[in-house]
Amino acid sequence: MRQTCKVCKREDYWNYSVPDDLWHAIVPANLQSGVVCLGCFDRFAAERTIEYAGSVRNVRFAGDMAAFEFDIAKLSNGPYRF
Ligand SMILES: [Zn+2]
Fold first, then answer.
1. CA 74 – ligand 1 centroid, Å
2. What is the tens place of the pLDDT at every residue in 22-48?
3. CA 11–ligand 1 middle distance (angstroms)
4. Which of 6, 43, 46, 49 has its CA 20 to 30 A from that of 76?
């Protein structure tokens, strides 16, 4: 069964990981033990102005028909800076 983001309540197709100290700095305390999708995580980071682009690991998409594990080829902090 697919997990649901505790913030936006959408099914979460994306898995990722970040270091614990970053997770605790970015995600509100009442949500830290649950699933927070990458989109909601990014919004929390933007609200707190905490850069995290270089700290994301294990980015995976787990769909119904396919699954992928991604290598991060490029990254940047801030919006639309490729
Ligand atoms: Zn979400």
1. 23
2. 999 999 999 999 999 999 999 999 999
3. 8
4. 6
